[in-house]
Amino acid sequence: MFELSWPWLLLLLPLPLLFKSSAVAAGRTLKLKPLMQVAGQSQRNPSRWRQAGTWLAGLIWLALVLAAAEPRWYGEPVEIPQQARDIMVVLDLSGSMEIEDMQWQGRPINRIQAVQLLTKEFLQRRQGDRVGLILFADAAYQLTPLTLDLTTVQTMLDEIVVGMAGRRTAIGEGIGLAVKRFNELESSNKVIVFLSDGASNTGNIGPEESLQLAKAAGVRIHTVGIGAEEMVQQGLFGPRVVNPSHDLDEPLLIRMAEETGGAYFRARNMQEFERMYQLLDELEPIERETLSYRPQRSLVHWPLAVALLLSLWLAALQIRWQELLYANR
């Protein structure tokens, strides 16, 4: 859309008309009479030359006033989602995450594959949030920083494999690193989504210490206990039912959530896993407010270029008048 930054300057357009009478009179007494005589001797129409000069001067004035009014072209509004929350997904990548006790579309999948599938769907709904990804096993590693580029987070989530951070479970390391990253940034709404299937058995910082750090930093932790409670396993004497989640430290996960104002979820299967993320969306509602801006482009150079070209034309016309004047003396 075309707009003028200073449209009131267009009121200057009729300004030359205020001086028309005096200018015309002066022109007739000083210039037009001899020039008309010269033009008559050269068998030219003096009114045509005079009208051409007047029109050129008027167009130059119009172009200059238009440039002063600063014309701009505004594009369609572009919406930018407001940052709502900083969410750090802290994911257990210990060896037990390879256990195939989940079902997806009729086939067994392991726990890490379940996390990848449903966490990507969760991320697609979190437009406007900054999301980061931390992996922990023997130690904790930040895979992606907090970012609005959720596509990159989803891509990196697809690349993780069990064992890339070790085989054990350092719960305190994962929480501690997430809190450290939050403290390095200015954030008023800090959330950890903590997913684990075991109990802490290694690490330089324990779960209790990291929990106190999270509480001091005002970080809210939602914890998720992953893994089925029953699984048929083939043994030496035939199939038997086992509990693949016997190592899950559920009391710790519950306390971490309660003491930080979060919630604890149990994901025994894909249905509970999916329901967990839906409830999480309700607990951490997605902000839909957006900022918008309209891209703009200045058009000042166009009327200025027109004024310059017309000025050159008028100058050439005046030179031609002078040539006619001296040629006919």
From TrEMBL:
It comes from Alkalimonas amylolytica. This is Ca-activated chloride channel family protein. The keyword Transcription regulation does not apply. The chain crosses the membrane at residues 299-319. InterPro entries: UPF0353/GerABKA_families, VWF_A, vWFA_dom_sf. Residues 86-283 form the VWFA domain. PROSITE patterns: VWFA. Pfam families: VWA. Keywords: Membrane, Transmembrane, Transmembrane helix.
